[in-house]
Amino acid sequence: MDWISLLKAQQADFLQRVKKPKTHDVSLLESQVKGCHTEIMPFWGEALEKLMETARQQAEIIAKNPPPTPPEYPEFSEWTIPFPTYFQQQAEDYILREQIVEQVMHQRLGKRIHRMPQDAVKNMVLDDEGNLRGESKFPYLLVDKPNVSILACVADGESFNSLKKDKIKWSVTQEDLKNNQLLIFLSLFYPFTGTRGYEKQAIITGFLPTNQLEFSEPKIYITASSLLYAGGLSWYLETGISKQNALPLFDEIMVPEQTQTVPPEHPLKEIIGDWECWQTLKGHTRGINCLAFCPGSNNDSISVLVASGSRGETKLWDLTKGELVGTLSEHPWMLSGLVDEVNALAFSPDGQTLVSGGADSTIKMWHVGAQDLIDILHKHNGMVRCVAFTPDGRMLATGGDDRKILFWDLMQRQVTVALSLDDTAAHSLALSQDGQILVTGSYRKIKVWQVCQQPGGKPTHAELLHTLTGHAHIVRSLAMSVDGKIFVSGSRDKTIKIWQLETGELLHTLKGHRDGVYAIALSPDGQTVASGSADKTIKLWHLQTGELLATFTGHTHTVTAVAFTASGEILVSGSLDKTIKIWQRS
Prior knowledge:
- With 586 residues, the chain is of the alpha+beta class.
- It has eight helices and 40 strands.
- The strands form ten sheets. Strands 1, 2, 3, 4, 6, 7 and 8 form a seven-stranded mixed sheet that branches. It has a five-stranded antiparallel sheet with strand order 10-37-36-35-34.
- Helix 2 crosses helix 3.
- It starts with a helix and ends with a strand.
């Protein structure tokens, strides 16, 4: 899992804690463990009184030179407050807001940041009736990297219930993206009188590097569910910014493709044969996360249409010509401005529909021929990481960071079955050919489910058959044999495991990759397992014996996706190096 995905998952966990019924007093957001991130920061007693007194004093000075009276400021005879007096009250609220933000930023980030001076009157932003708006922005610089500008976006006068319902919004403009490298989002709640007396609470709700936002409108609104977890903010300032700036230009690195297979005298040589890299497809500007073959585009048993997903777009390729067919852009359909990382793709059995799941918690349905968006499905509360059609194409299974597997009736566009994974996100799933067995992969766990169906094949519920715990890290990929007797799992623990489906027995553990395994595919004849890894290699294994038969090199970054064509004579791989490679058996 990359650092962005990790912080998105942690943000989803944070919001789940926020939604717990007993967090109305925000007790679950206060960490008592030294060194752990505490989301809430309360102000009360003498400390709050001191801030309020400072605000009063500074407001008196500012109010001596008030701005012009707003055009709709009430002028009724019973309205006895002159605008300069009313402006002083608004200035007092603004300066208190400013001071609380400064306290929060200083306590969380210490001497690493320096606040930029501002004209308080210009930054106050009053509405046409003279009321202080509930949102302010305060600029900071990173002390050891003064070229890095940080903008604290503050929503004030909010309630904890608004955070529970994801209703707090911050505006982000094109100017904000242009002038800053990092946005930090804070929620300041209404003051109240509690057990500690008069109190005002603040929460660093999350953050976003500005390179994670792309939009064409002058302004968009961001909610808490679109943010990265604030507990990773210190790490990002220390190492994440430098890592972002130091990303190598993978498309400028050339590594010759090499395929090493077992020697001719090897008993399994006939099964594996010899392979070569036939072509490299370029066109993505971001790393490729997933691949899917179109079952409806077979020509002499060779699937010619393949879809590849990356950040913000899905591309369709004609493999017989090695040409780009079209690009399905996520940008017109983004809900929050956060660029949708396309994590999973699946074609319907008839090849007419393509679905994509990604970072914005939605599933998008595309018409393959017209290359148009058909619909957007909303039910997940967090990143969608895996998708699969049922064999008849009428249902769709999806899973993600909200720890749920949802079965969608595509005719009704409704969820008919929802499975809970309880304790961890769904990172992968696989359905058997008859649609009756579902396998899900998550952190250190694999679950095997019996999908109970109506006579017409529509799922009604699912029963858990096995919980398998052989992996030591996230199970990133799953593949099931055509006969439904075997399934294979690949994990970030660098291993591949082969399991018997009926009993849950572990048959083989395949070791050979030097880094996490991100992709798994089974050849159509059921004899070969292909695996893609963060060690930049692709390996082919014998399913029955677990023996390593071949290693392909040529990618310059993590291999995130591998897929066989229907004939098994071609293997296609996608990588974070932005390329697709076509490997052909000779």
